[in-house]
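Example 3.2
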Amino acid sequence: MKTYTTIETKAQKEALINEFKGNLFEYLVASFMARNHKIERAFISSFGGAMKEQFSHYEQWLRQNEPELLKELPVLAQKTAQALDAHLPKDLQNILVMGKMAAGAHDMTFGECDIMAVGAHQKVPFSLKLCKGGAFVNTKSAGVKSFLSSYFSAFTMANKYQEEFSRFIDESFLRMGHELYHMAGLEFSGRFDSEWTSEGHSELPGQLPSPMQKVVLQTYYDLAQKLHFYLLELYKIDAQKFAACLWPLIGQRDNELIQATCFHKSMRKDGIEKKYQLSGLLVHKHERNDDASVAVEIIPIKDSISSFEIHFRGLILQIRIKPMNKFTTASYKVNCSIKEREIHDN
């Protein structure tokens, strides 16, 4: 079992909270759905073993590090389960938690499905998200060196652009390394070696002095600018084909998938500030439509920013370049997230 004893920054703690709350939220929503429809025995029998033990660990960690969240999670999950009732099969037999199971087995058969409602003659997949009110909702995280070739493979130019982009990534990383080592008075050998940390320099951009941090952030900006350029080139080749490639990026690879997003925010109740209070619920299915009339707008990228937006299907799709973990390796990811143009709070 993984341990999480070393937390160096607030951002790392926040990342763990987000991971754990998402996993527990999936389980709790499925549990309430099973309880509401009196199929708890089937649900419990299909959920156990190592996964159950791991979820227990998440609960223990949150109890120590974010107890207020642990208290409010069942409330948010119950409201979400109630909102999904109208979409369940009439002959419901079981609720399966798919997110952790499929991810652990690297099984993409069910795409973005987090829980599956199983009926005698029908299966309904659900994607669940829990996030702050008004925030972008994460839908996809992909390696930057395969992003174009994987998600825009319908274009014959995708592989060529990916090769060019990958070379640019490596060149940008080397340029960043040379500059940082020069600022530190060290000799760069093409990679960040043990000398970097032994001299007291961090591998986390947030812990670097401001001049060094600017160099790292500029690398992210440059990569975002380049990715924006290639996506714009693909769009110019065929706007309809480009639109069809965006469906997996907004979390709708499966046309039958129902997306449910539960929003929370801090509220003052009885003179006390309370976090993780329900602020809104969105339950919908983006009907796939690859018709040429579907409008796509790639918004111009701003200077000194590592993200840009694509407007599609009444959504804002945000594309952001981020390091996989530490900036000292040439591993970056493309984070995709969406926001509705209008969100109606409860």
